[in-house]
Design a protein that fits this description.
single chain; 139 residues; alpha/beta; Rossmann fold; 5 helices; 33% helix; 17% strand
């Protein structure tokens, strides 16, 4: 099992996903919070950037919103670029959003956050780069 699901299950989820919300999206192209989502955009995913510091700006063809509650429509994957210690501050928003998968990028782990989401039926991947795993599983 990989991240609580088998590689075929994770591959199927990545193939069926269409929308990726990016919590902590950043306009600087040298930051992972920019180039990882840019990679996903190039692979056909619709990106929904979220960062109060850049709200109103445009990233990947979409206006940045200030919080998850401002997103409209279903979110297949929530890709998180926020420090581990601030994740619990986003918990209620994430539970309201109900994404199909929450992906915590490399270096980001919070067991309490992950357990609360998994108890609500939302799978979580911790401390892995979505771009690296996408390449590995889908080429």
């Amino acid at each position: 099992m990989l991240f609580g699901m088998s590689p075929p299950e994770l591959r199927a989820l990545l193939q069926s996903a269409r929308t990726v919300a990016v919590l902590g999206a950043h306009p600087n192209p040298v930051k992972p919070a920019h180039y990882v989502p840019a990679y996903l955009k190039e692979r056909g995913y619709e990106l929904l950037p979220v960062n109060p510091a850049y709200a109103g700006q445009v990233l990947w063809g979409r206006e940045v919103v200030g919080c998850l509650d401002e997103l409209e429509g279903p979110v297949d994957i929530l890709n998180v670029f926020r420090r581990s210690e601030v994740l619990l501050g986003h918990l209620e928003e994430v539970l309201r959003l109900r994404p199909g998968l929450v992906w915590l990028q490399s270096g980001i782990r919070n067991q309490v956050f992950a357990q609360r989401l998994e108890q609500a039926g939302i799978p979580v991947v911790q401390d892995r780069c979505l771009m690296v795993e996408h390449r590995r599983l889908l080429g």
